[in-house]
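Purpose: get a first structural picture of the assembly so the mutagenesis plan has something to point at.
Setup: two entries, given in the order below. No constraints added.
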Amino acid sequence: MAVRLPRGFRAGATRAGIKPSGKPDLALLVSGLPASWAYVATQNRAAAPSIHRGRALYAQGGALRAVVVNAGNANCATGERGFLDDRRMAEVAALRLGVPVEEVLTASTGVIGVPLPVEKVETGLPQIELTPYADAFAEAILTTDLVPKVAEAEVEGARIVGIAKGSGMIHPNMATMLAFVVTDAALPQEALREAWRGIVDRTFNQVTVDGDTSTNDLALVMANGAYGAVPLEAFFPALEAVARELARKIARDGEGATKLMTVRVVGAGTEEEARRAARTIAGSALWKSALYGNDPNWGRILAALGNSGARFDPLRVRIQVQGIPLYAGGALPFDRERASQAMRAEEVEVWVDLGEGPWEGVAWGCDLTEGYVRINALYTT
Amino acid sequence: MAVRLPRGFRAGATRAGIKPSGKPDLALLVSGLPASWAYVATQNRAAAPSIHRGRALYAQGGALRAVVVNAGNANCATGERGFLDDRRMAEVAALRLGVPVEEVLTASTGVIGVPLPVEKVETGLPQIELTPYADAFAEAILTTDLVPKVAEAEVEGARIVGIAKGSGMIHPNMATMLAFVVTDAALPQEALREAWRGIVDRTFNQVTVDGDTSTNDLALVMANGAYGAVPLEAFFPALEAVARELARKIARDGEGATKLMTVRVVGAGTEEEARRAARTIAGSALWKSALYGNDPNWGRILAALGNSGARFDPLRVRIQVQGIPLYAGGALPFDRERASQAMRAEEVEVWVDLGEGPWEGVAWGCDLTEGYVRINALYTT
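Result (structure tokens, whole complex):
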């Protein structure tokens, strides 16, 4: 695809031998200038050493120059040694690039509980060829994702490029979502951090594949200023659009998924309730199964809504699937065959009006398929 | 099986024609004496009229004489008419039994959004033959449960019998858990209500099949005093044992399940954290898939734990599956083939020590199978 990175960024990857498949698995993303950055990481209490280290760097408030990522080993639940190995990964990258180790972030995804073969990182890192393109990096950070995920935008001359991996399984462990967004716009770190928190809440945090949060998730944005300043009111919406596109791509590539589901909740009493309601519907195993079977089973949407904690009166709620009204305070007559046919699509939109207030929220998910079960049960051990 | 009800209780069922299959679908459970009672119902905001009516009766604090249950139609999301139909169902039962309508509880399970054919209830109710046995009632309240669920206990001469239905699907809607426990012990209503709340929290509320809470769930206990008083300190543990046995049976009969999972969390900082941790592990789609595949994938248990909100230090956590230690602050060496073999069982126990405090909690669940997806996706519409 050849996606050019914003000015001043380079990236690359190599086959370090961490993935049993022998595919590229060690990747580096570098800014020629110190970059302001913002970062949101998993809330999982069993978080990996890379997450703990990232949080500490974030709290220090310094600039960032590089991210080194290994795919194949989460370096999680690896005891005290895991923390040393994670730091070593950062040191090797810092040495290669000639930058302070506190300006190098680490990220890992893959098997849990197996020590990181850090000597493979030491051998592999010097072999990485850095180029102005995102492609090799986007490919190397994948686990069992089916496709690389890249999104881009331009704002008055400044460029934004986002790269993500989604929910794929490496034996014997869990999916991890990683997102790296880079821009050559000049942005004050404080403004970037404040905006990023909200953007992540409205995009990556609204994706659900199976309700399991990984120990290694993170979403990063780096702004190196190589282009110069741009108006924040134009920049942040473009940044959010890039994050949203990555979020959609992650949901679409969920394990075993055959389709992308977008849930749009309007008329909520608060923004948080709108988002929570959308997430709960997108995450309902019963509705996700119905989606797979092309069954316009609005009762499951209503029941999921009832579990979300959002306030509503069932007599005022309205539900549409693919634009077809199914429920409005009570069952509506509809052509079941036509509705089922409309659900046989790559993308299915669920629209719910709570009839309570002015707030809206969107979430993304996918269907629950026999393929999901097979990937996570039968094709392991 | 012929399970005799406690003294003074009778029950029966008939084929009212509500289930498309023509199976028994209208059931009555009656106490000859006014009974003290306690009741916990779904938190779902889209709760059915029967739930709203039950809550109002509960708040009035009067005695209970009977429960009338229809299986086949949840009478939920049926608009204003649903409330009238629900009350009519209670009235017809009250007329037949010659008791005040405020002493008759209703319960419904089945399809959402379709008006209840209340005339079938009117025709069917007089045909119900009441007997001193639980069996016909236990059979009629099922939807796609595979087996009736009954449990019993005796406390110093008083008897306890519990009857439940679990998670089965009726096209096009969701599973519902209903539990009815009756005893001939004499119990003060206040003491019963206080104890029941805790018992339900430790038993029925610790069951998870797919994370979707129904609009029609309820768990009821009735005590008619026909036997006389028994010591509460002996009675409540026996009542809890009956509830626990029903909870286990519901989990084992989860949709598509091939095995029962019991998750026991010890060493938690609070009881609520212990229970939440156990529930989160039992509900993890990733771990449930691994369970199906007999994969001793403890990383998924640790990751689920990390999402539960319970406090712990990963370096102090211990995890066992079927009594085999897999993790103790780090990966333990274990025979993967032997552990997988041990998971090929009807019941699998997960044991987790958080290493934080003295509290324990148990949850029950089942594996996530291709059968679950098929039941809920492919075999509908």
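The CA atoms of residues 155 and 233 of chain A lie 10 Å apart.
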